[in-house]
Design goal:
The complex is a heterodimer of chains A (188) and B (597). Chain A is built from 8 helices and 4 strands; from the N terminus they run ααααβαβαβαβα. Chain A is an alpha/beta fold. Chain B has 597 residues and is an alpha/beta fold. Chain B contains 18 helices and 29 strands. In chain B, the strands form 9 sheets. A 5-stranded parallel sheet of chain B has the order 8-7-6-12-24, covered by helices on one side. A 5-stranded parallel sheet of chain B has the order 14-22-15-16-17. A 4-stranded parallel sheet of chain B has the order 2-1-3-4, with helices on both faces. The model of chain B is unreliable at 1-20 and 413-418 (pLDDT under 50). The chains are: A alpha/beta (188), B alpha/beta (597). Chains A and B meet through helix 1, helix 3, helix 4, helix 5 and strand 2 of A and helix 3, strand 2, helix 6, helix 7 and helix 17 of B.
Chain lengths: 188, 597
């Protein structure tokens, strides 16, 4: 990693003044010294790291920012475990989820998309959840045309405090995605 | 937009980055005491984040939400000239507002700040340290991409209109109006109360002396009416046709006997009450199939309270009050029904001492101890039922079935006179010639229509529901619309009156303060719009207008006052023209890319 080379800069020691005791000094030192790196040099330091744990069953979870987001947080509050491959993207409302975004998730390597919406009668925007239902149904058809099993797209409605159900749902969906395997992409 | 576009293209490896246009991003990595530090490999994480494009400042901190933590952050923003900040830690719902405010105070726009949730979404739900660290990196990476593309937006601030519309002239609606008149000294306010019927009063008009008042229900209404007389605009036979606009500035069309007029209101109070379920309707949802074998009369509580009375108690010897709960009707176990039944039983026994009054019940809420004691003291006899001790109608009264082996242990409080009851095989027979069932309340038939027009949520049965029963009682999700009384859940007169006070104070607080509207509104990129009008058709709020251009084409334009920010327009556009400021579709796409890979 290129940044490592540039760690020892004159200002690095000075910037340590705001390090509080008990914190990992080395890492902070590295981080603080970044300030002195010219922006031009930073440009090519893209996050292409070699340490990535290989994983081929990533799930993108789109959560509505209202109740499902609270349910997702609640899973953390009650400590319900689910796979690390499940990653959450919070939006204002599941109703703004477009087919393009769902397919984008597959495009960037996800093997499954879970959409967590509010219960339709509780939708903050009244028609967001019902729109989401339609969009997901349409996208499932589109996905089939593209050779992606419609089973890889799942919509679930959550209320607040449903952390356990959220985790159970993610676990169930993840199991299905692992069973389905990696999306087969035809090589050109 | 300049830097946003360029950063959005950096995902390809061959593309060049325009160096001057990368924002300076600062990342604060919260340890949350030791919680996150123990769950994730932070040294590794810091290395990886430091290598991300645009990151010029990284600070690991035990508590960034603490006062020293915030001071460090604001200092860093100023001194390191940070243009974007990502705070990786707990859920934005916890300290998001606080930290965003801190960043704002240091001169950063609110939308240049994002929180990556590596606690609830990561450290707390995973046990594999290496993989959790990998996920945390992806989550923080997504936030960095998101703020990198962010644009600044300012919240819209405005004063609400000083007018209130109260829908419904029952005890709740009149109560709110009267309370608002009381509060008027603090606030100049136009209050309009609309009533669907010709006379205000609602269900109360049918009652004689409701508990705990010692006066006729009609007088309660008169008293409330006299309080608001001349100070509140009372429109009879008027209904809401449509609602447009946003909190503080609602445009409401009211139909006054067919004449539709437009009015502007700052706030709206929904007090439409509920309908009483009569015996015929009750039989439809809960067929008490043995009811036909009963030779006496069956009524509901409201028939007992109706003025003038419909039952001549000179011909009645024994009255049986039966508490039933009907799963088909929501809130059928509400305390209101127990309250009304206990009170009516006590009043009946007090006024007709020679009458035999029985009370068959499953549960009475513990806070009705006083009413229970009162009924017991005047000589009402109680029979406790449970799942096994069920009731059925027989010719001369009711029979309480008992499970096998339960020989006559039904507790009968107070010694009954004469031959009023007898133990029979597997049960207890109680004689009676009048059975009183609860008068259940259910949502008005048009409540769903009103909910649709006012865009407020209802529960599965049609009662209006608030966003949080404890944190925001009386509110709706949409600030500026409030709910009171039985249209929310069955409420007694006392409950309605106290709810009216709560709502009146919330309304006056709402109207007295400045409204801050988030800039979460649809924005249509005019360079991309082809004028197909799909978005205008999809918009539930009619917030998108198609404006014709000189060359004959059309262009979609968003009316900011009507837009609720749902983002539905962005899902239907095939060109991707609409976007929900201040988090654009591109930003979400960038986040998806970061977490999906």
């Amino acid at each position: 990693m290129q940044v490592d080379e540039r760690r020892k800069t004159p200002e690095a020691d000075q910037s340590l003044e705001d390090v509080e005791s008990g914190e990992p000094r080395e890492a902070l030192e590295a981080a603080e010294s970044l300030e002195d790196v010219e922006i031009g040099e930073r440009g090519d330091a893209l996050n292409r790291d070699e340490t990535k744990v290989s994983s081929n069953s990533n799930i993108v979870i789109f959560t509505c920012g209202w109740y499902p987001a609270i349910a997702a947080d609640n899973a953390g509050v009650v400590g319900e475990e689910y796979p690390t491959d499940a990653r959450i993207v919070t939006m204002t409302c599941a109703g703004r989820l477009s087919p393009a975004l769902i397919l984008d998730a597959f495009g960037s390597g996800a093997q499954g998309v879970l959409v967590a919406a509010c219960k339709p009668e509780l939708c903050h925007y009244v028609n967001g959840s019902s729109t989401c239902e339609q969009v997901v149904a349409e996208t499932r058809e589109l996905a089939e045309l593209l050779g992606i099993s419609s089973e890889r797209i799942h919509l679930e409605a959550f209320d607040t405090e449903e952390g356990k159900r959220f985790a159970d749902c993610v676990n169930g969906f993840y199991k299905k995605i692992v069973e389905l395997g990696v999306i087969a992409v035809e090589q050109q | 937009m300049a830097f946003g576009e360029s950063l959005g293209e950096t995902r390809g490896e061959t593309r060049e980055m325009k160096t001057r246009e990368i924002p300076r991003i600062g990342v604060v990595l919260c340890h949350c005491g030791t919680e996150i530090r123990e769950a994730l490999d932070l040294a590794q994480l810091e290395k990886q984040i430091a290598a991300m494009p645009g990151v010029v400042y990284l600070k690991a901190e035990a508590y960034p939400c603490s006062r020293p933590g915030i001071a460090t952050l604001t200092k860093a923003i100023r001194e390191r000239r940070l243009e974007r900040v990502v705070i990786a830690g707990c859920t934005p719902r916890l300290h998001g507002g606080l930290l965003a405010q801190a960043c704002e105070s240091a001169g950063l726009n609110r939308w240049f700040v994002d929180m990556a949730n590596i606690r609830e979404h990561c450290s707390r739900v995973h046990t594999d340290k290496a993989r959790a660290t990998e996920k945390a990196k992806a989550l923080i990476g997504a936030s960095i991409r998101k703020v990198g593309l962010a644009r600044s937006y300012e919240a819209v601030r405005m004063k609400p209109r000083n007018s209130v519309l109260v829908i419904g002239g029952g005890v709740s609606g009149l109560g709110v109006a009267a309370e608002l008149v009381n509060l008027r000294g603090d606030l100049p306010l136009d209050i309009t109360l609309i009533e669907k019927e010709n006379t205000p009063g609602g269900v109360l008009l049918r009652l004689q002396k409701p508990y705990p008042y010692r006066k006729a229900a009609g007088d309660i209404i008169k008293e409330k009416l006299s309080k608001i007389e001349g100070k509140v605009k009372l429109l009879k036979q008027t209904e809401v046709v449509s609602l447009m606009g946003a909190p503080g500035h609602y445009l409401v069309r009211l139909s006054d006997k067919g004449n539709v007029e437009e009015h502007e209101f700052g706030a709206i109070v929904v007090a439409t009450g509920a309908d009483c379920v009569n015996l015929k309707q009750l039989a439809e949802v809960e067929p008490l199939n043995t009811m036909s074998s009963f030779s006496g009369r069956i009524i509901t509580q409201i028939d007992l309270e109706t003025e003038p009375p419909i039952v001549d108690f000179k011909t009645v010897h024994s009255v049986l009050f039966v508490s039933i709960s009907v799963p088909e009707l929501s809130h059928s176990g509400s305390r209101v029904y127990s309250l009304v039944a206990l009170n009516n039983a006590a009043v009946l026994k007090e006024t007709n001492p020679e009458l035999e009054v029985w009370f068959l019940f499953k549960d009475v809420p513990s806070d009705l101890e006083r009413e229970f004691a009162r009924a017991k003291s005047v000589g009402v006899m109680f029979v406790r039922l449970d799942d096994e001790r069920t009731i059925e109608f027989v010719k001369n009264g009711l029979r309480v079935g008992m499970p096998a082996g339960d020989s006559g242990s039904v507790r009968v409080d107070s010694a009954a006179r004469g031959e009023a009851f007898a133990y029979v095989d597997n049960g207890l027979e109680i004689k009676g010639d009048l059975v009183v069932l609860p008068t259940f309340l259910r949502p008005r038939v048009d409540s769903r229509g009103l909910a649709e027009r006012l865009r407020i949520p209802v529960d599965a049965h049609g009662f209006f529901i608030e966003p949080h029963i404890k944190l925001r009682p009386g509110d709706f999700i949409e600030r500026g619309i409030f709910v009171v009384g039985s249209c929310h859940s069955p409420a007694s007169i006392l409950e309605s009156s106290s709810q009216a006070m709560v709502v009146a104070s919330r309304v006056s607080r709402f109207l007295g303060s400045e409204i801050v509207r988030t800039p979460f509104l649809s924005q249509i990129d005019q360079k991309v719009c082809r004028g197909c009008s799909r978005c205008a058709e999809a918009c539930r709020w009619d917030a998108i207008e198609m404006t014709p251009l000189d060359n004959g084409l059309k262009l979609a334009r968003v009316n900011d006052t009507l837009c609720t920010g749902c983002g539905v327009c962005s899902t239907v556009c095939i060109n991707g023209a609409p976007s929900l400021a201040p988090v654009s579709q591109d930003q979400i796409r960038a986040m998806v890319e970061a977490v999906g890979a």
